[in-house]
Design a protein that fits this description.
The protein is mostly beta strands. It contains 4 helices and 41 strands.
């Protein structure tokens, strides 16, 4: 159909059903009857007018052209430019909403929060409500009881700026819990505004009651500052702030705090090593932290990043109720990265802070260049790296490594898959130290060829499909003559990497010597597509002389540990998981994790048991024997979440196991941590309660009980 005729027909319909009359700045869009008497224009029945950018719907509207007054009666509905909707029994406005008044007002804000009052007065387009009630609750109305509401003797509603409350009383489930003489909150239109944020509360057996007030300072559209001190009953106060800034092509943020040493003085230490550490904190006279990040993108290829993550001591962040994660390792770095298609460039320097700072190096700098391109229907990769590490005590090491490789995957008839990789690794290490250790300077040029075969086979029955994939590989490389200071911590075989043609997790640690890799993957599925089981099993066998390794690596013997993993889907709601490393030499599992993950209706639970050994990393420490490199760990953990209703969740957890003390002694503890809590969430309220009891000891961190209670009244005035 011709567009001209369609447009003509639509215009005819609009003229038929709409009676538009324009008078000054008021548009009479629709009414059942319109009369003109003197200066008054009276519209009755389904009246729709547009006045001052607002839309008014009413049973009757009288407009006086001389006084520029609109009087609307009956069921009056007003909608403003911000999509807020007002309901009145009567409304009178003068001169384009410069002044006026209304009766029985009810307001639905654009975020579905609501205000109600008997009377309201209009002044310069804003509303003043007397004896008003505010609530963000909407779904709660179905239960005939609001979760919370606020009553105020006077509310000033400025939609371009703030909503001000006078003599405010907050009621929770119908009971008054808070009185405030004056409160000002941003209107829904305002994205950011200076003012107080919701405070946090916590309590612990060691620190007592803690209050975390928060004040937000809106410096500009791109900058913000949050002052969030921590005030504790027994450990003193912490000055804590956050500053963030966003600018074209980048951003910057800093999160920092500082306090005295009262928290360290309160600790009663008996262990000599721990006391020495705490005395050092007291002598310094302060505790604090700084987390800072800077990012800048020069163009689509290059970007710069820098971060500072430091603390006065590694126990400070756990001593006070900070709201961010407390990592065991803090890294400060500066980096320049370049992305060019499949190629990658990196220049980076790093400084690490850990509980064991004697083993924490400074990386000044790390240079990396990864180049990738297609060649002879395969992929050519040239990965080059330079690393310079400084350790305490004048120990220093530099490493240069370049891996040049070509790889290709072949698909043969009957579904056979072949992976071929040809690699040459050039590696040089220079070690400088005052005392002799097992790490020496060397240069190696090691060629390597790896070839792997995989054959996915599908076995189908009436009920189950099974994919059985045998895997066999051979790796031929020069024999390893040197222990690399950078490699020992990564040289572990596990169920993730043994079937991928390599034993090492680090990208610059290549395999050495000749060996076989063999294993299998099995996947089972129901006919409807649901998983039944996923299983892996495999090991490696060295053909050449076995290098010296610790037990925790799984590579100590000629035949490596047998590594396996199993996910057994007992039902749609219940899964058994297991992964581990079994030593045929010791006839034991050197690493294992097993347990149940359950989801049943509204219950979510995990029960996991774990134990094993991990290879310790101190590259310049001379060990008496290989076994001294290994640190044992064991334990179990239980997590339970019960969704009582759509709004209420109960949660709890237990952790049993072992831990290391500051004196590096293994301490057996039946119970390390336990917690129980409750979360309540609905559209207008969030309540989070948690009781946690910890048993571990480090520095001035002692066993304690923590209670956290946070209540957030959502959408208050927004």
């Amino acid at each position: 159909m011709n567009l001209k005729y369609i447009a003509t027909f639509l215009c005819f319909l609009f003229c038929l059903f709409a009676q538009i009359c324009v008078c000054d700045d008021i548009y009479f869009i629709n009414s059942n009857e319109t009369t003109y008497i003197g200066d008054d224009i009276t519209c009755t029945g389904n009246v729709i007018i547009m006045y001052g950018g607002r839309i008014i719907v009413a049973d009757k509207v009288v407009y006086n052209q001389k006084n520029e007054t609109v009087i609307a009666t009956g069921k009056v509905i007003l909608k403003d430019e911000q999509q807020n909707v007002y309901f009145f029994t009567s409304l009178m406005v003068r001169k384009n909403f410069d002044s006026g008044e209304g009766r029985d007002v009810k307001v639905i804000m654009q975020d579905r929060s609501r205000l109600a009052a008997k009377t309201c007065i209009l002044k310069k387009g804003n509303f003043e409500l007397e004896n008003a009630v505010y609530t963000p609750c909407y779904e709660c109305l179905a239960f005939d009881e609001l979760t919370w509401q606020a009553k105020a003797s006077h509310v000033y509603l400025d939609l371009e700026d703030t909503i001000d409350y006078e003599n405010l009383t907050v009621e929770l489930l119908g009971t008054g819990v808070l009185y405030w003489p004056y409160l000002s909150v941003p209107s829904p239109k305002i994205k950011k505004k200076t003012g107080f944020l919701a405070p946090k509360f916590s309590m612990s057996s060691k620190g007592g009651f803690s209050l975390l007030p928060q004040y937000f300072l809106n410096i500009s559209e791109q900058q913000e500052l949050i002052l969030k001190p921590i005030i504790t009953q027994r450990l003193g106060s912490v000055a804590w702030l956050y500053y963030g800034s966003r600018f074209q092509n980048g951003e910057f943020s800093i999160d920092a705090s500082i306090t005295g040493v009262r928290s360290a003085k309160e600790a009663k230490i008996s262990d000599s090593a721990e006391k020495k550490h705490v005395d050092k904190i007291i002598k310094s006279g302060y505790r604090g932290h700084i987390f800072s990040n800077f990012k800048y993108e020069f163009d689509d290829v290059w970007r710069f990043g820098a971060s500072v993550n430091m603390a006065s001591d590694m126990y400070y962040l756990q001593r006070f109720p900070f709201l961010h994660n407390n990592d065991r390792v803090l890294e400060s770095s500066a980096s320049l990265e370049g992305f060019d298609g499949r190629n990658y460039n990196l220049v980076k320097t790093s400084i690490f802070q850990t509980r064991y700072n004697d083993a924490a190096p400074k990386a000044l700098p790390v240079l990396e260049r990864d180049f990738s391109t297609d060649l002879f229907n395969g992929t050519l990769d040239i990965d080059t790296m330079f690393m310079n590490l400084f350790f305490r005590g004048g120990k220093e090491a530099q490493k240069v490594a370049s891996n040049i490789s070509w790889s290709k995957e072949f698909i043969a008839p009957y579904g056979h898959l072949f992976d071929l990789k040809i690699l040459t690794a050039l590696k040089a290490l220079k070690v400088s130290e005052k005392t002799k250790s097992e790490y020496d300077s060397f240069f190696d040029a090691t060629p390597q060829i790896s070839f792997a075969w995989k054959w996915p086979l599908l076995f189908s029955s009436d009920f189950v499909d099974t994919v059985f994939t045998p895997i066999v590989g051979i790796i031929a490389a020069g024999n390893k003559k040197h222990i690399d200071v950078f490699e020992e911590q990564f040289a572990e075989i596990n169920d993730i990497n043994f079937l991928e043609g390599g034993k090492s997790i680090s990208p610059y640690n290549i395999d050495y010597g000749s060996r076989f890799c063999y294993g299998t993957k099995i996947s089972m599925y129901k006919k409807d597509g649901h998983n039944l089981a996923y299983f892996t099993l495999g090991r490696t066998t060295d053909i050449t002389e076995v290098a010296q390794k610790s037990e925790a690596t799984g590579l100590k013997q000629k035949n490596s540990n047998i590594v396996t993993s199993l996910d057994l889907f007992l039902t749609d709601e219940l899964t058994f998981v297991f992964n581990g490393s079994y030593s045929t030499r010791k006839k034991e599992w050197t690493r294992s994790l097993y347990g149940i993950k359950a989801t049943y209706q509204k219950v979510y639970a995990d029960a996991l048991v774990f134990k094993g050994k991990q290879s310790a990393y101190n590259p310049f420490f001379s060990y008496a024997n290989d076994e001294d490199r290994d640190e044992e760990y064991k334990g179990s953990m239980f997590d339970l979440n019960f969704q009582v209703s759509n709004n209420v969740k109960l949660k709890g957890g237990l952790v049993f196991g072992t831990e290391k003390s500051d004196t590096n002694k293994q301490v057996d503890r039946r119970l390390i941590k336990q917690n129980i809590g409750m979360e309540y969430q609905n559209e207008c309220t969030s309540i989070d309660m948690m009781i946690e009891q910890t048993k571990y000891r480090h520095g001035d961190i002692k066993p304690q009980t923590n209670f956290t209670f946070v209540i957030t009244l959502k959408n208050f005035g927004s």
